Amino acid sequence: MEILHIGVITDVPVAGETYSEGLKVHLTDPEKHPFKYEFLRFEKGSPLHKRIQSEPHIAIKVDSIKEELSKATEVLSEEMDCGNGMFIAFADVDGFIFEFTEFRNQV
Predict the structure, then answer these.
(1) Domain harbouring 52, CATH code
(2) What is the DSSP letter of 79?
(3) Interatomic CA distance for residues 34 and 49, integer angstroms
(4) Measured between alpha carbons, how far is 101 from 5 in angstroms, rounded to an integer?
(5) What is the model's pLDDT at position 1?
(6) What is the tally of structural domains in the chain?
(7) Which of 8, 44, 66, 99 yields a CA-CA distance of 20 to 30 A from 23?
(8) How far apart are CA 65 and CA 80, in angstroms?
(9) Segment holding 69, helix H or strand E
(10) End-to-end Cα spacing for the chain
(11) Full residue range of the structural domain in which residue 97 is found
């Protein structure tokens, strides 16, 4: 497995953040941070699980989200299509939140 980023929750604006209207979250690009931090600032009413909104997570690249979710302690979000062949899902694995990231149909 490859670690893609570390998700860090914040309640203050961070330079370079973008907004995801559907998820009601402001987030930064982890590729622009030296330690691959993705800062997340949630708005009230975000549909994501409360733990995702309040606890850090580690994003890892996986071959199959479905397979990883089947091994999880608790599924916190079903698979989401992020566009461009990238799919994600969040799960608790032994007390910690993981973001499983699967890339499909990419050359």
Answers:
(1) 3.10.180.10
(2) -
(3) 28
(4) 11
(5) 77
(6) 1
(7) 66
(8) 10
(9) helix 65-71
(10) 19
(11) 2-103
Give the span between the Cα atoms of 13 and 26, in whole angstroms: 8
SS3 81: strand
**pLDDT per position as a tens digit, 76-91:** 999 999 989 999 999 9
Under a CB-based contact definition with an 8 Å cutoff, are residues 52 and 77 in contact?
Answer: yes
Strands 96-103 and 57-61: parallel
Tell me the one-letter amino acid at 83: G
∠ CA 28-82-20, rounded to 5°: 45
Neighbour count for residue 58 (Cβ, 10 Å): 16
pLDDT tens, 20-63? 999 999 999 999 999 999 999 999 999 999 999 999 999 999 99
Beta bridge partners of 93: 96
Reported pTM? 0.93
**φ and ψ of 68, to 5 deg:** -65, -40
- Cα–Cα dist 8/97, whole Å: 11
- Say what the pLDDT of residue 107 is: 56
